[in-house]
Amino acid sequence: MHALLYLEFQKLDRKSPYFDREKKNELLVRWLKPKLKSNKYKAIRKQLKTMSLQAKKSQVDLEDVLLTAVEAKPEALQPHLDSYLLLIREIEKKLGTTALLSTPEDVDLSHDENGCLLCVLSNDLNAHFGTKNQLVADISILFRGTVREKHLFLGTIYANEIFGYQIQYEDETSFVSL
Fold first, then answer.
1. pTM
2. What is the pLDDT of residues 123-145, one digit of tens each?
3. I want to staple 144 with a disulfide (CB 3.0 to 4.6 A). Which of 117, 131, 156, 160 is the partner?
């Protein structure tokens, strides 16, 4: 990131927003060279050295390589869809039940009347997730159960660090909608 900032400031100083690949590589290699000896960059020293050598031989556009590295970092996160499915599976396991998927209009509130009801409310679960499986729209969950089950359910939701929650409805008969 610092190398890219250095390059941008060089472009501003020269009042030329465009450099050819050779000039960009030269500037970036000059900036990276002292970093190769620094203990701060010890963990990535080999990668820096390889990039510098390739840039000197004009085999790669070092700016593009660095931009790709900066942009690739967030994608190391687990997709929200996978995390959501793991959360539902964890709730199912703790409650000893199976989650239902239903449209809000068609929920069968009489399902297992004396037991636990866990229902994900959605017309299409996939529509809540974008092309990279990141959450793009809120998903509601309807829960009905004993006080003990309610505490297990909410405890699992509260412990999850990936998704936020908001209780939309709660009554004395242990109906909870998130």
1. 0.56
2. 998 889 888 888 899 899 999 98
3. 117
Q: State the Cα–Cα distance between residues 49 and 32, nearest whole angstrom.
A: 9
| Angstrom distance (rounded) from CA 87 to CA 134 | 15
Q: Which is it for strands 117-121 and 100-102: parallel, antiparallel or unpaired?
A: parallel
Helix, strand, or coil (residue 168): coil
Q: Could you give the angle at the alpha carbon of 153 between the alpha carbons of 148 and 158, nearest 5°?
A: 120
Q: Are 157 and 177 in contact (CB under 8 A)?
A: no
- Of 135, 127, 125, 133, nearest to 162 by C-alpha is 135
Tokens of 26: 């030269």
DSSP code per residue over 93-149: HHHTS--EEE-GGG--TTTTTTS-EEEEE-S-GGGGB-TTS-B-S--EEEEE--HHH
The C-alpha torsion from 52 through 58 and 60 to 61, rounded to 10°, is 90
